[in-house]
Model the fold of this input.
Amino acid sequence: MNAKSIVKMGCTTMAGAMAMTSCTGAKAQEAKGGEKSPNVIFIIADDLGIGDVTPYGQKLIKTPNLERMAQEGMKFTQCYSGTAVSAPSRASLVTGLHTGHTHIRGNLKASETGDPEGQAPMPDGTYTIAQMFKNAGYSTGCFGKWGLGYPGSESDPTKVGFDHFMGYNCQTLAHDYYPDHLWSDTTRIELTDNYNQAESTYSADMIHSKAMDFIREKGKSGEPFFAFLTYTLPHAELVLPHDSVYQEYCRIIPEADDKAWAEDNPNKRGAYGATERPLASFASMVTRLDSYVGDVLNELKELGIDDNTLVIFTSDNGPHREGGANPDYFSSYGPYRGIKRDLYEGGIRMPFIARYPGKIKAGSVNDHVFAFWDMMPTFASLAGSTDTITTDGISIVPTLMGDEGQRTHPYLYWEFHEQGGKQAVRMGDWKGVRLNVSDPSKTTFELYDLANDVHEDNNVAAQHPDVVARINEIMDTAHTHSSLFNFENKER
Done:
């Protein structure tokens, strides 16, 4: 089973469900013959579908820098996010726990718990990948969207291991690309030039600039660093400067397609800032994000630290239909079914490209099945951490480095606390999905054979009662009690 384990640097022992064991391993530097631990840059897009970028089949939107990353690194085909929306998916990533064990399992606003701007916080003392890196001697910085604790809370980014933070503390405010303020560490930065909708400072560019300053400063210093680049692109609102890239997409995408979609789907925009060219805007935002990736790769070359830096690119959940976005137009979900808020493959199967010159085989494609909670033990191994870590994850270092001995999960588990409550399990090639979990009278169960039905069209639950029983058992035991999110209480 997908046990919750204690890991002490580089070694994971998995027993039964919720079993907790410990083991000790040598530091990564020693295990690899004294090699220096790498810098780590983790780039996570916001609501970017696996099919939105060219390495995964996108035909219309241009992402040459991600193509370069794939050509120079390893492209994974079976990476899964923490779940199907932002806050809980990122909570799974930063804590190394799946959503049956994380404290944050949904997009819960701080105002709903009586707190100010931002989201409900993680508990005081929550251990994160940032704290792990910091304890291992790394400088740490987060640039972009946080969404895991309101300003000044016990899980403000500066209180959970980040030396520096620049961006949006609140994920709701991150829907505005011309905001009136951002946060620098614990200081509110007023963007007065954006007052009264003057729209002068584009937040994504400002955040990226600060991220590049951090990488440049730490790269020159020679000290190891972890840069967590949580860019908001291409989340709605679909607004950006009308530069040459935008103008090019306005030419490529027929105006009639754009105008018809915008006029026929005003409800898709909701409270987001509207645009007359949502399709061109979305494509431009993805290409803009790709240019940020190019800036990072080029800077590493310039600094001479390219061969000692692991760069990872992924997304937090599947593509969205918000703010005028149209995932059908771009086949944003690739060959899969579902989008954001779905626990079908399109909602949780992510692009994941890892580049580490000289260490990760260039141009390789890997079908290892893993999820966001595996990043904690992976990074602990690479950083040479000696911390004792509680995690649901298994290090993927052997897969990244082309070594033998990669261990696999008996199953992966997700839960989602909107739309009646959902649960999903992947066990081998079997995929089980429970819907309407909060109301037992309406709960349904679906079973798919991903080896033959990756689009999850044919529910074969009736033909495989033994598999259904096993997955139901996993769902019952993988979900633990939460003070905020419990299906039995019909909460979120």
